[in-house]
From TrEMBL:
Keywords: Lipid metabolism, Methyltransferase, S-adenosyl-L-methionine, Transferase. PANTHER family: CYCLOPROPANE-FATTY-ACYL-PHOSPHOLIPID SYNTHASE. SUPFAM superfamilies: S-adenosyl-L-methionine-dependent methyltransferases. This is Class I SAM-dependent methyltransferase. Pfam families: CMAS, DUF7884. The lineage of its organism: Bacteria, Pseudomonadati, Pseudomonadota, Betaproteobacteria, Burkholderiales. The keyword Transferase applies. It comes from Pigmentiphaga aceris. Belongs to the CFA/CMAS family. Residues 22-100 form the DUF7884 domain. It comes from the Bacteria. The active site is at C369.
Length: 404
């Protein structure tokens, strides 16, 4: 009894301390049924239920990592709309002086072929059926492109692929390499509509198998080769190279070598496009409030996000000239909102496919990333490039060709 009273006193002090900083529409419900509100309201937007005393340290040292970890491990439950849960979670994580004053940490991981293969397979080999429940029909797992803002997900993902292929001015008969080809949507579109000859590489066996099936079903096996292969092992020369949602796995220190490899594979008059998530911290530090720690532990092992300045610097060091840089931050916020909504709508089927921990990880990850893109914690850029040192006379005068 004394132990329970002591804990209740601690949580009340913690709640009172938080109420002094700002009001949150959050109710904390303890395992004994007692409640502590962090604001004045008739009914809370979010109720956080602490299921056991051992969960209190996660809450009282709240950052996005500790709160998400507690939810994933089922030490706490969260009730409320997903938008409210994420918004309140961010506010609670940012309410402590220690967290708001914390500088972003720049971490580096080993990125050998074995480590990268294991990280990719951990993330992408959950199951094809899992991804099919919340991605678009082509299973494009990267930022969509909303030309007008009101497109549905399938339309926006097709527009993204076409936007990329127009940016690199893909022509019939040209040889295209897609690094990190996913389930094959881009190479299939490039062959079908643009008449290209394509090679797509992935480290995910499940992506490789389904992409190969889809190429065969489309009758494009004579134009497209899907390989289970590391991009560092690709040889030959390609007129066009695309890398969409892959370079986050490369590692900041390895970026010059990554772009140098693209340079080596690219024809002298070729074009390449890199599409990837970036940090908004000028020093390429981790995402604030503990989000990076959670993502590294549960979602993207060893993922590293560079600032766009580091991307462009590394590209130049790799012997490439940046020709066009476009931010799609708003587009990725919208993409993730649609993914999260579809995930919620298919929650029963998803829970039948995966265990509860996996379900909770991805539920928080999708909605949390949507919020992070919306508030400029992270961003995304497409960069078109070519071999450095070429004549300016070969460049287009305007960007009109991208939108024809």
């Amino acid at each position: 009894m004394l132990f329970t009273r002591t804990l209740s006193h601690q949580i009340e002090n913690w709640a009172a301390d938080n109420r002094k900083r700002h009001t949150l529409p959050l109710r904390i419900k303890l395992w004994d049924g007692s409640t502590h509100d962090l604001g004045n309201f008739d009914s809370p937007a979010v109720t956080l239920t602490v299921r056991e005393p051992a969960a209190l340290p996660y809450l009282m040292a709240a950052n996005l990592d500790s709160l998400s970890d507690a939810y994933v491990k089922q030490k706490i439950d969260l009730d409320g709309s997903l938008d409210d849960i994420i918004s309140v979670g961010y506010a609670l994580a940012g309410s402590t002086t220690e967290q708001s004053a914390l500088a972003r940490v720049v971490r580096h991981f080993k990125h050998g072929k074995d480590e990268d293969r294991a990280a990719i397979q951990y993330h992408y080999d959950v199951s094809n059926a899992f991804y099919q429940l919340w991605l678009d029909s082509r299973m494009v797992y990267s930022c969509a492109y909303f030309e007008h803002g009101d497109e549905d997900l399938d339309t926006a993902q097709l527009k993204k692929i076409d936007h990329i292929l127009r940016k690199i001015q893909l022509q019939p008969g040209q040889r295209l390499l897609d690094i990190g080809c996913g389930w094959g949507a881009l190479v299939i579109r490039a062959a079908q509509t643009f008449g290209a000859r394509c090679v797509g590489v992935t480290l995910s066996r499940q992506q490789f198998e389904l992409a190969t099936e889809r190429v065969a079903a489309a009758g494009l096996s004579d134009q497209i080769e899907i390989r289970l292969q590391d991009y560092r092992d690709v040889t030959g020369t390609f007129d066009r190279i695309t890398s969409v949602g892959m370079f986050e796995h490369v590692g900041r220190k390895n970026l010059p070598d990554y772009f140098s490899r693209i340079n080596q594979l690219l024809a002298d008059d070729g074009l390449a496009l890199n599409h990837g998530i970036t940090s908004t911290d000028p020093d390429s530090g981790d995402t604030a409030l503990g989000a990076s720690e959670f993502i590294d532990r549960y979602v993207f092992p060893h993922g590293e996000l560079p600032h766009i300045a580091l991307v462009l610097d590394s590209m130049q060091r790799g012997g490439l000239e940046a020709l066009d840089v476009e931010s799609l931050r708003r587009h990725y916020a919208r993409t993730l909102q649609l993914w999260a909504s579809r995930y919620e709508a298919h929650s029963a089927q998803i829970r039948a496919l995966v265990d509860e921990q996996t379900y909770r990880i991805w539920r928080l990850y999708l909605a949390g990333c949507a919020f992070a893109f919306e508030r400029d914690d992270i961003s995304l850029f497409q960069v078109v490039c070519r071999k450095a040192g070429r004549s300016a006379q070969t460049l287009a005068w305007s960007r009109r060709y991208m939108y024809a």
